[in-house]
Every structure is written in structure tokens, then in C-alpha cells.
Write a sequence for this structure.
């Protein structure tokens, strides 16, 4: 995904910050162990959110580990759980498709880079696909729809965003509890629409300059009504928040609350103001 | 029923005041207004029922049975829901929407509509809204309002979209507390502007 889903660090408590950090490191280690070294480069904040959302253990067991990125003092690191494993696999699957997509869309040099990266990630991807065949099918289907709409230069903002939103809502596995599944799917659907729109706003100038499809430009032209955009994006967040309130409280609820109510509006404001720099992307 | 104290998220030793506060916060969270026309409204309603029952049970146990929170009947009320419509086509679509079969409602609207009147746009907007297609929902509601400016139901739906929906804000109170002094100033400034402006005219 894109790295927009993150907390507002300044409002996390010390304990929450440590848990978030441990989840981040835990996912990274999980990626390496399950999928190999290359998988680590697919690590993104969005999947840390997903891991926090899907984790239902009352408390995360943490251990201390070193890694290449943090060779000094060992850092707290969440132990491998089924939710982390799922997020690791899904992260690899999405990253692989994204690279393939870039090979088709980017200019020669960047496309070559992406082709090499996709080649390196292929074995890792195949492993993840074997573990999650249904998710892989689902992603392939949604991305194909998205690709088709983008090729048609579709001005139907909701329809295009829907393909991505459905993709994301498939990231939560069925638990057998219909109320929980419905609330999670709704949360991820609205979050998916929001991510797609934020990404569209973020890329607007670049896409227009390169004559590439951009969902915001296709719907509103090159200078969209910012108030209208703000409202429609915030409305998706509001619906994601309402769905979140219906989930059972877990040890991670505080951080999720921060991300949904503070982190995402902050990111949206930065992106809309054009202040979302390269350094924030990861 | 599970432990009423854990439903409200308070300890059994909590004071009456603390319990009331916790209850009010939860009631604010699951208020039907926050889930109006939301496909998850039934889940919120269930939560509301749970906390109402828990609160009633605790107040009864503590011997304040007669003083149960007065606002409860208000909180329990159903969202206004759909007004009945004389038009059988509209009634059919509204019924499909109400049971949550959005695909069928959309199919009826696109394939069987005799005319595209204000009601059609309103119903299409309702389907879009429940799907999370907020841009198209707003466009359709706007169309309905333009075609029938005096219809309250259409107006409400469009106003809700223009506002960006209803939401519970957990950090709302905190922020207010932090900037209370400022708020005071802002209020005074606003009042000043209004009064000054009035004199100017």
C-alpha cells in the first residue's frame, strides 16, 4: 500500500509508542522469517495498522531483538502470531503486484528498476501466494478491475475507489463471528476508499504533468474543489471510525484510536496542503 | 447477561458518578445519530441495548431503581427511518434498502424505473451512501433537492452529506479542555465581531 496509515506519534502514550514499535519490528522479523530477506523491503506502516487491528491476543508477547536496521541495542519486538503472519504474507503479495504495475506504467529506467525488484521478490511472492491463495486471487481480480477503469480514464471516482476499497476489505480473514466480520470489512472498505483518494490527491500534480490517469483529475479536473474533497474524504474516515467503535476492545484499541482519529486526519491535511514530503513515504 | 460493570468498562467499586459518566460516554458513542443510514446500525443498536441493560441493572442493584437515567428512552429511539411513500415503485425500493439488499435495490432502480424523478435520485443516493460511494450519494441527493426543494427528507440527507456525516469524537472533549481559555477568548471575539458588525450597519 502507500504508508499513509500511521499514528500521530506525539499523542501516543509511552506504552503505546513501545507497543507500536514492537509491532513494527515484529512484522519486519516475521517478514524475514516467513518470506526471506527481500520481503523486509515491503514493510509499511499500513500493515502495522492491519496487524494491530487483526491481533486478538489479549497481550502481545515481546522479546528483544537486533536487526540490520538497528544493530545497536536490541529492540522490543512482538512475537510471531497468526495475525502478524497473515499481514506479512499480504504485504508481500500486494508489494509484488504493485511492482508489476509499476513495470507497466513507469518510464524506462524506473520500470527496469521495478522489473529487477519484482524478479527478486518473485520467489518470496510465490511462497506468500501458496499460504494465502484466496487473498491472492482476490487482489488479482480487484487490481484487474482497477486497471480496466484506469485505462478507460473513468471519471467515476467512487467506482474506481471501490475496486481498491474492496481489495482492502478482503484483507481481514473470516472469523466466524458475523458481527465482527461485518464491522471489520466496513472499516477496511472505508479506509480503502480514503487511502485511494489520498493517494490520488498526493499524485495529482505528478500524474497531470506526465499525462497519466489520476482519479481526482478525471473527476474534478486539474484544480479540484478542496472543500468538497476534504468533506468526502473525511466522511469515509467518519464511517471507518463508526465501524471501529463496534469492534471489541483489545489491548491495541488505544493505538488504533489514535491512528483513526488523529493520525489519518493529520496525514490528509498534510497531503492536501502539499506538505507530505518524500521523507515520510516508506 | 455478562457482568454489567465490564459492559460499561468500570470497576465494581466505581462510584455512582463514575458509572453514570461511563454510561453517558458509551451512549454518546453508540447513539443512533452516529449510525443513521449506516449498514452497521443494527450492531450499534445492539450495543446500545446492552449498555442500557447494564446501567439499569447496576442502578437497580445499588437501590436507585427509580432514578434510572432519564435520557434512555430518547437514546433507544429508532432513527427516523423511511417515511412511507404512496408510490408502489418507491416502496419496493425502500423495502429492499431497509433489508440491506442494495444490489437488488440498485437493479430495480436502474432497470425498472418508470421515470427519473426526485424520489428516484433520493433512492439512488441512499443506495450509494450505504455502499460507501459518497461522491455519487451526494450528487444524487443534490439532484433530489433541486427537483423537489420542499422535501424535508431529501434536504436532511443532502445536509448530512455536506457536513461529512455524523460521528462520535473521542478526542473532542480532551481538546476542548486543553483550549478552554482560548475558546473563551474566541467566543468573546466572535461576539465582539457580531456586535461591532451590527453597529456598523
Amino acid at each position: 500500500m502507500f504508508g499513509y496509515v500511521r499514528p500521530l506519534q506525539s499523542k501516543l502514550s509511552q506504552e503505546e509508542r513501545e507497543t507500536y514499535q514492537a509491532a513494527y519490528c515484529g512484522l519486519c522479523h516475521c517478514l524475514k522469517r516467513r518470506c526471506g530477506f527481500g520481503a523486509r523491503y515491503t514493510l509499511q506502516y499500513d500493515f502495522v495498522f492491519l496487524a494491530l487491528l487483526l491481533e486478538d491476543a489479549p497481550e502481545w508477547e515481546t522479546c528483544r531483538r537486533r536487526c540490520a536496521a538497528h544493530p545497536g541495542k536490541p529492540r522490543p519486538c512482538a512475537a510471531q502470531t497468526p495475525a502478524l503472519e497473515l499481514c506479512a504474507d499480504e504485504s508481500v503479495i500486494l508489494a509484488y503486484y504493485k511492482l508489476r504495475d509499476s513495470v507497466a506504467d513507469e518510464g524506462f529506467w524506473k520500470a527496469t528498476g521495478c522489473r529487477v525488484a519484482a524478479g527478486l521478490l518473485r520467489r518470496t511472492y510465490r511462497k506468500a501466494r501458496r499460504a494465502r491463495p484466496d487473498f491472492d486471487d482476490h487482489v488479482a481480480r480487484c487490481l484487474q478491475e482497477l486497471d480496466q477503469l484506469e485505462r478507460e480514464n473513468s471519471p467515476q471516482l467512487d467506482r474506481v475507489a471501490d475496486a481498491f476499497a474492496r481489495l482492502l476489505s478482503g484483507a481481514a480473514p473470516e472469523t466466524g463471528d458475523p458481527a465482527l466480520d461485518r464491522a471489520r470489512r466496513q472499516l477496511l472498505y472505508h479506509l480503502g476508499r480514503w487511502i485511494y483518494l489520498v493517494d490520488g490527491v498526493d499524485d495529482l500534480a505528478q500524474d497531470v504533468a506526465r499525462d497519466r490517469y489520476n482519479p481526482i483529475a478525471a473527476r474534478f479536473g486539474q484544480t479540484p474543489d478542496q472543500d468538497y474533497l476534504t468533506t468526502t474524504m473525511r466522511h469515509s474516515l467518519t464511517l471507518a471510525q463508526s465501524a471501529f467503535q463496534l469492534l471489541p476492545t483489545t489491548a491495541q484499541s488505544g493505538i488504533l484510536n489514535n491512528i483513526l482519529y488523529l493520525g489519518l486526519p493529520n496525514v490528509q491535511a498534510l497531503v492536501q496542503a502539499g506538505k507530505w514530503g518524500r521523507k515520510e513515504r516508506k | 447477561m455478562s457482568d454489567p460493570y465490564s459492559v460499561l468498562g468500570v470497576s465494581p467499586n466505581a462510584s455512582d458518578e463514575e458509572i453514570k459518566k461511563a454510561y453517558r460516554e458509551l451512549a454518546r458513542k453508540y447513539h443512533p445519530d452516529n449510525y443513521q443510514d449506516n449498514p452497521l446500525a443494527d450492531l450499534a443498536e445492539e450495543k446500545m441495548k446492552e449498555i442500557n441493560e447494564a446501567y439499569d441493572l447496576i442502578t437497580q442493584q445499588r437501590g436507585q431503581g427509580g432514578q434510572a437515567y432519564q435520557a434512555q428512552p430518547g437514546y433507544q429511539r429508532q432513527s427516523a427511518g423511511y417515511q412511507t411513500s404512496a408510490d408502489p415503485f418507491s416502496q419496493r425500493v425502500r423495502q429492499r434498502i431497509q433489508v440491506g439488499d442494495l444490489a437488488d435495490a440498485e437493479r430495480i432502480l436502474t432497470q425498472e424505473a418508470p421515470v427519473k424523478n426526485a424520489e428516484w435520485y433520493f433512492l439512488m443516493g441512499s443506495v450509494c451512501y450505504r455502499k460507501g460511494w459518497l461522491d455519487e450519494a451526494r450528487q444524487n441527493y443534490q439532484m433530489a433537492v433541486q427537483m423537489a426543494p420542499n422535501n424535508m427528507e431529501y434536504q436532511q440527507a443532502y445536509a448530512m452529506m455536506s457536513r461529512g456525516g455524523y460521528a462520535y469524537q473521542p478526542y473532542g472533549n480532551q481538546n476542548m479542555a486543553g483550549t478552554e481559555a482560548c475558546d473563551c477568548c474566541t467566543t468573546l471575539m466572535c461576539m465582539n465581531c457580531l456586535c461591532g458588525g451590527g453597529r456598523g450597519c
Q: What stands out?
A: Chain B touches chain A at residues 9, 29-30, 34-35, 38-40, 43-44, 46-47, 128, 131-136, 138, 161-171 (CB under 8 Å). The CA atoms of residues 172 and 178 of chain B lie 10 Å apart. The radius of gyration of chain B is 22 Å.
